[in-house]
Design goal:
Elements (H helix, E strand, L loop, with lengths): L17 H9 L35 E4 L5 E4 L6 E3 L2 H9 L6 E4 L23 H7 L3 E4 L5 H9 L4 E3 L5 H15 L2 H22 L9 E5 L4 E3 L4 H8 L3 E2 L7 E3 L2 H7 L3 E5 L10 H7 L7 H4 L3 E4 L1 H5 L5 H12 L6
Parallel strand pairs: 3-4, 3-5, 5-6, 7-9, 7-11, 11-12
Antiparallel strand pairs: 1-2, 8-10
Helix pairs in contact: 5-6, 6-12
Length: 335
């Protein structure tokens, strides 16, 4: 597998566990899955105070539980926030928390305001000194940081709230929880309503596709890496009316080229900003593989690049990614 230029990891760094990240960058190693693969859903996120739908002001103290089962009680909205996950950073900015955000990961590039924030290091192993110096009330992290790393930071007295979204609903639930924690619930509900409408628009558009007419889809977000069941990217394909040809796998996996050829996908989706060390784009890498010229998607020129951030980040734009996936699979239904 070719090694990818490090600058192009920004679009997919929010996806992988530390082990998978290291393997993909090194371009070698055995197939691994993201931590937590196979979990059916996020742990329940609880609130200590009952609220009516018309009262969107958070009532403190507030108690919530994160994806690791850790419970947090907030006496007030956090004044200083660090996020070391591009997806969580997008969510927090979308909630209007620019002034409260005092640090982001090295890979955070959206929105533009995130690029001006102090950098806290990588997504799987952030810089301890930088995070301690930021003196944040809470640090948000996502699926790229494993629980061992989270525990290490907690042992240092750092409050880390971890997410591990497996579905669009999980992403929406996380945004709702962030809104509760930061007392931005009204904005959170606006974001969630927009996401739900996007899902409805897509599922309504593809519902007329008969089971026997559903297209087989293969997605490659990094050279040699695809996704199986139990992750949000697989759900995007399903919601868009496609069949993921890697659905026999669980979580994030290195591909078996012979299996993909045998599956003969009708459509191949890829992250469009990936460039390897030889300046080859991901579609060029895919089309150059031995035997892949016989795949229907390649013969029919249905190898389609998508915005890598929309495809790979489980944040507020994940349903924009869903729409892009659906349009790529069934262009006639999305004029």
């Amino acid at each position: 597998m070719n090694t990818m230029n490090i600058k192009n990891w920004k679009s997919v760094a929010s996806l992988l566990s530390a082990a998978a990240l290291a393997l993909a960058l090194a371009g070698c190693g055995n197939a691994t899955t993201n931590e937590g693969s196979g979990a059916s859903q996020q742990p329940a996120q609880e609130q200590s105070q009952e609220q009516t739908t018309t009262d969107l002001k958070t009532q403190y103290p507030l108690t919530v539980t994160d994806a690791t089962g850790e419970t947090f009680t907030f006496e007030k909205a956090p004044a200083k926030i660090v996020s070391v996950s591009p997806a969580e950073t997008e969510s927090l900015f979308a909630l209007g928390l620019d002034e409260q955000i005092v640090g982001v990961s090295d890979f955070d590039d959206y929105p533009e305001a995130a690029t001006t924030k102090p950098k806290m290091g990588g997504v799987s192993k952030p810089n301890e000194e930088s995070i301690i110096a930021a003196d944040a009330d809470i640090v948000f992290t996502g699926i790229s940081m494993n629980e061992e790393a989270v525990k290490k930071f907690r042992d240092l007295g750092i409050v880390i709230f971890k997410t591990d979204p497996k579905s669009v609903d999980d992403v929406a639930n996380n945004i709702e929880t962030f809104g509760q924690i930061t007392d931005t619930q009204e904005k959170a509900q606006e974001l969630i309503a927009k996401m739900k409408q996007d899902v409805t628009d897509v599922t309504e558009a593809v519902k007329a596709v008969k089971p026997e007419e559903k297209k087989n889809v293969y997605v490659e977000f990094s050279p040699g890496w695809t996704v199986g069941k139990g992750e949000f990217m697989d759900e995007l394909i399903t919601l868009a009316g496609g069949n993921n040809v890697a659905s026999d796998l669980q979580g994030w996996n290195e591909i078996n080229e012979e299996n993909i050829i045998a599956a003969n996908p009708d459509v191949i989706l890829y992250a469009n900003d990936v460039i390897d060390e030889n300046s080859k784009t991901l579609d060029q890498i895919i089309k150059a593989r031995s035997g892949w010229d016989q795949i229907t998607a390649v013969k029919d020129d249905a190898v389609i690049g998508l915005d890598a951030n929309l495809l790979s980040r489980p944040g507020p734009r994940v349903t924009e990614g869903l729409k892009a996936v659906a349009k790529a699979i069934y262009p006639d239904l999305f004029q």
